[in-house]
Task: structure prediction
Amino acid sequence: MSLNINWDEAIKKEARGIEDYDLGEVHEIQADTVVTKKGVLDKDKFYLPKNLVEAYDGHKLRFRVTKEEAQTFRRD
Result:
């Protein structure tokens, strides 16, 4: 499946996982990774591989990742 995503446009959009799990807001786009930040004071950062993106509707970037799987991509 090929998604034609304008990655620059995805910055500052919501990121969601399976079952609408909140992955925060897209903060940065790297070569093969989407960096999201979640939280107000203590921000969690997720470094999610682009190949896990399943959809983008212009408002939300959706990933094929569960809440549990997302923790493996979390960094401080």
The chain has one domain: 7-75. The chain has a mean pLDDT of 93.
